[in-house]
Design a protein that fits this description.
About 50% of the residues lie in helices and about 15% in strands. By secondary structure, it is an alpha+beta fold. The chain has a 3-stranded antiparallel sheet, covered by helices on one side. A two-stranded antiparallel ribbon has the order 1-2. Strand 1 and strand 2 form a beta hairpin. Helix 2 packs antiparallel against helix 6. The chain is elongated, with a radius of gyration of 26 Å. The chain starts with a helix and ends in a 15-residue tail after the last helix. The C terminus is likely disordered.
């Protein structure tokens, strides 16, 4: 009957050590370099910038004369309808359609590491127009493209409203305004000269 007491006392002593060990492990983990966080930030920043590039390219491919009817198709009491024609390229319908498929384009990107800063950026490895690309120092494999595609899909889902808001009107520096200022996905890029972005 009393033979179990030493076992209980030992378990109680061990229980006191576990929180202390966990606390120590957490403290040490917080002191480790944030290379994983930087890698994730590079990936999400690169995915955001590639996403905006691809959306802007797709928008530019649409005939500017093509329009879509927007508004209510209900008949007003006076017999008229509240329908207006807007350019299709930057319409919410077209942008929503693009957001559903644009991340497939991440298969056409590779990863490039800056030798001085060890920061990663993502570049097209297949040009839109078929011109030869300089691929020196670019890593192109399934891990890179699947990670970039997953990050792109996450951004497209989480920031769909912001993407549509920014791209529904012609604007300059959409990449910087969206990826750096609005979402903070590229907050480190605010300290990089624009010609390096």
């Amino acid at each position: 009957m009393w033979g179990g007491i030493p076992g209980i006392c030992g378990a109680l002593r061990m229980r006191g050590r576990i929180p202390a060990l966990l606390g120590l492990a957490l403290a040490l983990a917080s002191l480790l370099p944030t290379a994983g966080a930087r890698r994730s930030q590079d990936l999400h920043c690169g995915a955001c910038r590639a996403l905006v590039d691809e959306l802007e390219w797709e928008i530019a491919q649409v005939d500017p004369r093509k329009t879509i009817q927007m508004g209510s198709f209900r008949i007003n009491p006076d017999g008229s309808q509240s329908v207006v024609e807007v350019p299709y390229a930057r319409s919410e319908a077209h942008l929503t359609e693009l957001l559903e498929r644009v991340c497939e384009k991440m298969k056409e990107y590779g990863e490039k590491v800056d030798p001085a800063t060890h920061r990663k950026s993502y570049v097209r490895v297949i040009s839109h127009d078929g011109t030869k690309m300089d691929l020196s120092g670019v890593k192109f494999d399934g891990d890179v493209t699947s990670s970039l595609k997953f990050a792109c899909e996450s951004i497209a889902e989480e920031y769909e409203d912001e993407l549509i808001e920014f791209l529904s009107h012609e604007a300059e520096n959409v990449k910087d305004r969206l990826c750096s200022k609005r979402t903070d996905l590229c907050d480190h890029a605010l300290h990089i000269p624009h010609d390096e972005l």
